[in-house]
Amino acid sequence: MIDQLVHLLGYSFVQNMLVAGVLVAVVAGLVSRFVVARSMSFAVHALAEVGFTGSVGFLLLGLSPVLGLLTGSMVTALVIGGMGLRIRERDSVVGLVMAFGLGLGVLFLSLYNRYATEAIALLFGAITSVSSGDLVLLVVVAIVTIAGLGIMYRPLTFATVDPVVAEARGVPVRLISILFLLLLAAAVAEAVQVVGVLLILTLLITPGATAERLTAHPGQATLVSVVIALLATEGGIVLALMTSEPVSFFVTTIAFFCYVSARLVEPVTDRLRAARGQ
Amino acid sequence: MNADDNRHAPAPAHAPAPAHAPAPAAADNRAPDEEPAMCFDRATLAYGDRVVWSELSMTVPQGEFLAVLGPNGSGKTSLLRALLGLTPLAGGALDVLGKPPRRGNPDIGYVPQHAGFDRDVPLRGRDLVGLGVNGHRWGFGRLSRADKMRVETALDDVQARRYADAPIGRLSGGEQQRLRIAQALVGNPRLLLCDEPLASLDMRYQQEITELIGDWSRQRRGTVVFVTHDVNPVLSYASRVVFVVDGRWAAGRTDDVLTTETMSGLYQAPVEVLRVKGRIVVVGEASGAGLDLDEPHHFPAPTGGHGAHVDRGGHA
Fold first, then answer.
1. Which residue of A has its CA nearest to B137?
2. Which class for B48: exposed (0-12), middle (13-18), buried (19 or more C-beta within 10 A)?
3. Residue A272: inside a domain
4. What is the extent of the structural domain holding A130?
5. Nearest-CA residue of chain B relative to A211?
6. How far apart, in Å, are the Cα atoms of B61 and each of A214, A236, B17?
7. B147 Cβ under 8 Å from any chain A Cβ
8. Taking the domains of chain B in order of start, what are their residue ranges?
9. Total structural domains in chain A?
């Protein structure tokens, strides 16, 4: 198996895949912290599924499915952001937008007469099938997303953990919500490449949720989240190369075990904290 | 902010400014040319057609402690939102520290109702106070050494250093509110707005939090606007009161507003303000008069429990 891995590492497409994996993991790890803190799992799901519709639509037109995915999730982000951001209405708005989007996806799939390999790949993730042109797009999107998060990191944190005071202090809370939805849409389009539409939550929820269990320090939590996303993504790719089993399976499994381990050590960290008088 | 607060006030449109308490006595401890902390001039606030309060005129000099009283839904929170520049007036004018209200005014600190952080939120008390320094600024926002010093000083001022590194969701309500005050004061504001900061705290914490805010006001000559449902804990600090009922209002020195005549005019029903054993109790004929006093309001005498004598000199 190791021989097989070393052999494969010589190929440029494998190297590209690992590089893309790093970018995806950094984006997912950063964004995941805020997805968890803002309770946006459902929105992630909707962005990914309507993104799927977008990519099938683009396949129909003979365009890049990755670009279609990005377009689909971005449009969804704008619709959700425009229709409702208050917690109470957000849930139903996300649900109904997702249902409509997926309905369109069903239509596109039936119109797309060819054997839908590429569409299926999007559902379960197929980083191996990403073309070099798409890879460039992914790199650009990752850089823009990371830069965007860097610019709004502080007010986004404020608006997330303490929205009432943030608003009183002049943070444009509504604008931040919409900007974050757009960043989230980009992150979804990235992560779908690795784990697919159906397993998207593994990269956009698990790292952040695990980090929350391990530390109360916000900076450390962000770092831990990124590290877990990296571990799951790169570990998943390497294991898949060694065994020829699907990447998604390994990514979801590693992420899940990280979370379970964090839950198991939590009582210990709590006790340590109590011992230090905190 | 608490939108419920404005839900059920069937405010009559253009209620005439009623029940004017005597105009606040000018120039007690003010510097001669200092701008007032806030100046409402026939200010009206409305959401769509619904008028929350109208033609409010009141000037509060700096260094005063203004208690904002009234039943639920009378627009107390809206008054804070107007001062913060979050809700524009429907009519009239408002100046805050000599200028029209604007969002993100660094001269204003804000303490919200205690809402309780989620147990697992990855945030320490220290981080909450840090957000008060630069949470509104774009960027990644690492605190400079000077900013970190300010956070430490603010933590010390509210005696919260001991639990500053604990996850904030695991602290008691009183501890969280202390950190809230540190967060509001770390920016060195001149005006501190507090929206029911005592709600859902037990008596001991209510007293501690009130003392922190009141002492800050006295020591720094900072102005406090304190929205409260239960006035018991604050009246030994409150030099002024604005009482809002159904769009009507009365503003002035505490002793001038909390009188039988003023309060009866405000509720448009016979209300008696009694001074009993060092406390002021407002009693309404709830039945028949259509009066909803919400809960009985008990006002301790501003002199701090030394009988019914009312000190007309104010307490600023």
1. A155
2. exposed
3. no
4. 2-198
5. B122
6. 49, 65, 21
7. no
8. 116-188
9. 1
